Amino acid sequence: MTNADPGESAPTFVAHAARGSRPAWREAGSGQALLLLHGWSLSGEAFDGQRALARHGYRVIAPDHAGHGLSAALPHAGHASVAQLAADAAGLVRYLGLRDVVVVGWSMGAMVAWELMRSDAALPLAAVGAIDMTPRLVGAADWPHGLHGRYDIVQAAQMAAHVRQDWPRLIDSVRAGLWSAGNKPDAAQASRIAGIMRQCAPDALAALWEDMARQDYRLALRQARLPLFHLVGERSRLYAPAVAQATLRLQPAARIATIDGTGHAPHMERPAAFNAALREMLDWLDSPGAQASSR
Question: How many structural domains is the chain composed of?
Fold first, then answer.
């Protein structure tokens, strides 16, 4: 995980500890709020390369979900759900007094972002973005676009059981799925990612995996009143290119960008290229076309 865009210094993330039921978070910069929601089994550290966006007028905020990282011991972590993570994020938005928030969720974090949009209409969101994620993890006759194409509820239950039984043993295989096919993080990156994963609470991870398998955000995307955008890895090992196109058809007014030479975690694999693509999306949000798509 590169600290910043090449050749560009970036402010340090300031970490804020979890308190009560409020999750921990990291932030850098000032300006329009950019809320970055990490994926399953990682933490807000996954967005270390996005600190550079603070140099462009953004307040970059990256919380740790319950059961993850600095929020591993939150009281409700053991029975965490996507809805609970969304409630935690909404509480943080209100605690910080944020307005016109652009939420960008990666993987599981995308489901949390879509849940925020679906369940809390009063939250002051400006747009919702997703990084390499399907709105339905489990495949169906009318949705052959789940995890690895044909993932089913039985496989999800088996995965959750394995996580509860021996999460450390799964870390290497989960980590391997982040980078693009044929690539892998360097030794320092790989060690850091594994360290983050080891901080996670297995019971929380298992509960969240089971809950993700129950979710279906297709209707929420069809009915979205906010501008939507999708950032995908060109060579994701988890989701084929057809997933992004099928997701886009749910809400044709949305925008999509593909990050060349990246997999499931484009913001970690090529942070400079990802940041450039995200900034283009953020610029689009100020355009008349984006405003029209939210009506």
Answer: 1
Task: For 35-46, write each residue's pLDDT tens digit.
Answer: 999 999 999 999
The domain that holds 38 is classified in CATH as 3.40.50.1820
Range 89-118 average pLDDT:
97
- The tokens 């892998």 sit on which residue? 184
Containing H/E element for 164?
helix 153-176
In a domain, 1, yes or no: no
Contacts of 225 (CB under 8 A, 6+ apart): 294, 295
In-domain check, residue 67: yes
Give CA–CA dist 144/136, Å, rounded: 10
Check the CA dihedral 230-207-198-180 and report its sign.
Answer: negative
Q: Is 38 helix (H, G, I), strand (E, B) or coil?
A: coil
Tell me the average pLDDT across 99-123: 97
Whole-model pTM?
Answer: 0.95
Is the CB of residue 130 less than 8 Å from the CB of residue 103? no
- Residues 50, 27: Cα–Cα separation, whole Å: 10
The residue range of the domain holding 249 is 14-293
